[in-house]
Specification:
This protein is of the alpha+beta class. It has a single domain, classed as Creatinase/methionine aminopeptidase superfamily (Creatine Amidinohydrolase), CATH 3.90.230.10. The protein is about 30% helix and about 25% strand. The protein is built from 4 helices and 15 strands. Helix 1 packs across helix 2 and helix 3 packs antiparallel against helix 4. The longest helix has 24 residues. The two termini are about 35 Å apart. Monomer. Keywords: Aminopeptidase, Hydrolase, Metal-binding, Protease.
Length: about 250
């Protein structure tokens, strides 16, 4: 079932999204060589709770952590752990926040210490793909317009788009209809309506888009061991255009 949000509900989700964006802003300086993704987990959970929020991923479908911390060839849903991060690691930190009943969701990618040209390129393409998808999130457009914009750009840059994990509707629960694939045909799929709140979260790989699952039942890896990157925003469909609710103020820099 697709729920359309009122202006008041969107305003509350915007407040939740601002808290989430603030967590990501603080992670920019926190993530460095020598720490672990478990340190990231503890930092995020403490930050959320000290600002009046709830780490909404904890307990969702049995998941145990406030964050998904996916490193290098992990596509998504990586468990935070005590392995030390080193120069050149690519970590994607995904989280959901419930603030006074309003939910937001955003993933951001960070390079640990010194980067490489391959990582810089992958991150740049993935971030631009996110915003190209967001540009298509207009009243009257179709879901396929979002996926088509992302897929054609990414594949044109020699990279691949993950098919097995997609964006989604959000609020009042974390995952709602509709599904938002990051691939597809323009002009196809459900028509977007004012009041929808969705996530767009392309996962882009340096090699094949195909994946394999960890025995833990959660973590997905690239099939060929290539790097994977992800950026994600929560946004509302409004008559004035897409309103990014998890904005870090970086939209003009991609």
């Amino acid at each position: 079932m697709i729920t359309l949000k009122s202006p008041r509900e969107i305003e509350m989700m915007d407040e939740s999204g601002e808290l989430l964006a603030d967590v990501h802003r603080h992670l920019r300086s926190f993530i460095k060589p020598g720490i672990t993704s478990w340190d990231v987990e503890e930092f995020v959970r403490n930050f959320i709770e000290s600002h009046g929020g709830i780490a909404a991923q904890v307990g969702f479908e049995g998941y145990k952590y406030a964050t998904c911390c996916s490193v290098n060839d992990e596509i998504c849903h990586g468990f935070p752990r005590k392995t030390v991060l080193k120069d050149g690691d690519l970590i994607k930190v995904d989280m959901c926040i419930d603030l006074k009943g309003a939910v937001s969701d955003s993933c951001w990618a960070y390079v640990v210490g010194k980067s490489t040209p391959e990582i810089d390129y992958l991150m740049a393409v993935t971030k631009k793909a996110l915003y190209l998808g967001i540009e298509q999130a207009q009243v009257g457009n179709r879901i396929g317009d979002i996926g088509h914009a992302i897929q054609t750009y990414v594949e044109g840059e020699g990279l691949s788009v993950v098919r097995d994990f997609v964006g989604h509707g959000i609020g009042p629960t974390i995952h709602e209809s509709p599904a938002i694939p990051h691939y597809g045909e323009a002009g196809k799929g459900l028509r977007l309506k004012e009041g929808m709140v969705i996530t767009i979260e392309p996962m882009v790989n340096t090699g094949t888009w195909r994946m394999k699952m960890d025995p833990n039942g959660w973590t997905a890896y690239t099939l060929d061991g290539g790097l994977s990157c992800q950026f994600e925003h929560t946004l509302a469909i409004t008559k004035e255009g897409p309103k990014i609710l998890t904005s870090q103020g970086e939209e003009l820099t991609y």
